Amino acid sequence: MKTVAVTGGIGSGKSAVTAFLSSRGIPVYDSDSRTKLLYDTDPALVPELEALFGVPLRGEDGRLDRKKLSYIIFSDPGALAALEAVVHPLVRSDFLSWRERRESPLVVIESAIILSKPLFSDLIDKVVFVDAPEEVRLQRAVSRDGADPEAVLARMRAQRFDLSRVDMIIRNDGSLEDLYRSVGHAFRYLFDEDLLYLQS
User: Fold this and answer.
1) Domain boundary residue among 58, 73, 101?
2) Which of 15-24, 40-49, 132-141, 171-180 bottoms out in mean pLDDT, i.e. has the lowest?
3) Are the C-beta atoms of residues 141 and 11 closer than 8 Å to each other?
4) 169 is in which domain, residue-wise?
5) Are 23 and 110 found together in one domain?
6) Stated pTM of the model
7) 116 Cβ partners below 8 Å, 6+ apart?
8) C-beta separation of 83 from 4 below 8 A
9) Strands 126-131 and 168-171, how do they pair?
10) Which of 52, 106, 122, 198 has the fewest CB atoms found within 10 Å of its own CB?
11) What is the pLDDT of residue 157?
C-alpha cells in the first residue's frame, strides 16, 4: 500500500483534490477532522492537556473548549509545540490504525502541516502540493470562512513549505474540471497502472 500526502496553503484547494480522489474510491484521511475527533473521543487527551497547561479546558458539556485552547496557543509561543508533542503522536497512531483497515493499493492523507513534521515523514511515499495564486487563495478563504481578509492574508504568509520534498505540484487556478484533469494526470504519472480508475 502506498501513501500520498496532499498538502498546500490556505485556500489552495486541498479539500477539492481529496474530495475528487475519494469520489474515485481512494481512501482519504482528513487530518483536521480526525484530530478534532480525537479531542472528543480520547478520554485521556483533554485531561492531559489540562495538566500540561495548568488550566481547565472543558466546557459545560465536558468537551474541549476549542476557543480557550486556541487562545492559549496564540498567546504563548511555546504552547503550540507543547500541544503538538502530545497530540501528533496520537494522530500518527490513529492514522496507522486507519490505514491498516483500508483495502486499497493507495491511501491519501490530507494535511497542511505534514511537510514540517518529521514525525510523519516515514509514513509518506509521495507528496502532492496543491497551489494557486495568492489572490485566488485569499478570495476562496474569505468566501469560505467569512473571515477578515487581512487576518487570512497574515495566516497565509506565515505558512512555509519545503518544496524540495514535493513530488508533484497541482496548479488550481481554473475550473473544477481543470483541477480534476490535473489530479488524474498527476496521480497516473506518479503511480501508473495502480490508478487506472482515475482515467478521465
Assistant:
1) 101
2) 132-141
3) yes
4) 1-27+103-193
5) yes
6) 0.89
7) 160, 161, 162
8) no
9) parallel
10) 122
11) 83
